[in-house]
Amino acid sequence: MSSRFQHHGHVVRVAVLFAAGFLTFLVARAWLIPADFGVYGFYRAGALDAVRAQPIKYAGQTPCLDCHAEVDELRQTERHRNVSCEACHGPSAAHVEDFSIAPATLDPRALCLRCHTALAGKPDFMPQIVPADHFEDAACTECHAPHAPKQ
Amino acid sequence: MDQHRRDFLSQAGQFIVLTGAASLAWDAVLAGAPQEAPNYVTTDHWWGMIIDIEKCIGCGNCVRACKAENDVPTDEPGCYRTWVERYQVRPDDPDHPIVDSPDGAYDGFPAIDQPGDGLKVFFVPKLCNHCAHSPCVQVCPVGATFESPDGVVLVDKDRCLGCRYCVQACPYGCRFIDPRTHTADKCTLCYHRITKGLTTACCEACPTGARQLADLKNPDDPVHEFLRTHKVHVLKPELATGAKAYYNGLDGSVR
Fold first, then answer.
1. Which residue of B has its CA nearest to A15?
2. Does residue B30 have a pLDDT over 90?
3. Could you please report the per-residue DSSP string of B110-178?
4. Confidence at B31, pLDDT banded by 50, 70, 90
5. Are strands B47-52 and B245-248 parallel, antiparallel or unpaired?
6. B58 touches chain A (CB under 8 A)
7. Residue B68 burial by CB count (10 A; 0-12/13-18/19+): exposed, middle or buried?
């Protein structure tokens, strides 16, 4: 009976080899695949938080109007009432965080012309001017109030 | 060495059962605990965007806002998370429009030299369509890009190899390689903003409201009223990507 298993050493060696390979696989897997991989799907769950951690630069209208409510009142009946503050004033989250940081200075002509230069393809509701024919050297703010352009 | 068949089988059995149990236990260790975000439940949202071509004036405010908010390179060519295209469609050849987008419309558009008679001109803002069945996600070999549970296609920059498969796979041309990190980059739908109750930078900066962020899972979102009352379309619907950028007034010539 025992003579039948006298060469079992071969099997043990293969088993040990297999076990070592499997262990290497487990170690490599643990090392290469992040711990949170596959929680929600075939990706790292922590990537969601990593993307969310990006700093915000556009504060949104609400914090602007907390302090500058009078501007909101001024524009209520005007065509710029639905234009958000930062559409013209630029990213202002830094200013909201720290009032000593002034928001960007605006060019009183180039800024307006970004939207109001006559251009084929602009929809009809958009008031447009040909800059060369419309007080070429004047700042728009000499005649128009930006928050209430009809005044 | 003397070993009986019974002992050998018993040991082999133990080995198989124990390693199996160990690997199961190890899987649980590897999976870790999901990182919960406070006050924001991903499964309560399904993000998309409405783009009203009839309101777009081609000013490029969205492009500038996107680059400022997301620190997208301005001095390298081809780095746009959003951009605006101008279509010029001639009445005699509507299938071959002239399309231009100088620097992604970062500085708006120059005047057309000779508009000619009957030329149809309009602006089409483009961005990632945040497809529900995204081709770019399907090709990523390392799981570095994915559709989040709230329907936003994102890139895990720590995991991306920069192999560019996704750049080629996107049928809308919405991806590029960030020249600083050499990883794929794309619109995140301002995920860092929309998960905190703000709208995207492009929607914030759009002066005419041509872009509107939409939460399709929120029954109170005006998107449902908009989709019901307007004839909207997505880009390349024949590809069945499940695109969630809905265009109102989309011309048939737009690719």
1. B12
2. no
3. PPPS---TT-EEEEEEEE----TT-HHHHH-SSS-EEE-TTS-EEE-TTT-----HHHHH-TT---EE-
4. very low
5. parallel
6. yes
7. middle
In single-letter form, the type of residue at position B231 comes to K
Predicted pLDDT of residue B19: 73
Give me the residue from A9, A48, A121 closest to B122, CB to CB.
A121
HEC profile of A100-111: CCCCCCCCCCHH
Q: In which element (H, E) is residue B215 found? A: strand B211-215
Q: Tell me the residue type at A107.
A: D
Distance between CA atoms of residues B67 and B205, nearest Å: 12
In angstroms, the CA B239 to CA B243 distance is 9
Residue-averaged pLDDT of chain B: 90
Q: Is the pLDDT of residue B17 over 50?
A: yes
Tens of pLDDT, residue by residue over B142-177, are 999 999 999 999 999 999 999 999 999 999 999 999
Which of the pair, B83 or B118, is modelled with greater confidence? Answer: B83
CA distance B220 to chain A (A): 20
- Matching residue, tokens 């008031």: A127
User: What 8-state DSSP symbol labels residue A129?
Assistant: B
Could you please report the per-residue DSSP string of A21-73?
Answer: HHHHHHHHHHHHS-TTBTSSSSSBTHHHHHHHTSPP----HHHHHHH-HHHHH
pTM, two decimals, is: 0.84
Tens digits of per-residue pLDDT, B107-129? Answer: 999 998 876 778 999 999 999 99
CB < 8 Å from A in window 210-249 of B? none
Residues 6+ apart with CB under 8 A from A27: none
Tokens 């060495």 belong to residue:
B1
Predicted pLDDT at B103:
95
Q: What value does the mean pLDDT of chain A take? A: 91
Which of B168, B169, B162 lies closest to B133, judged by CA?
Answer: B169
DSSP class per residue in B175-202 = -EE-TTT-SEE----SHHHHTTT---HH
**Residues contacting residue B69 through CB under 8 Å, at least 6 positions apart:** A56, A57, A58, A91, B190, B193, B201
Q: How far apart are CA B226 and CA B230, in angstroms?
A: 6
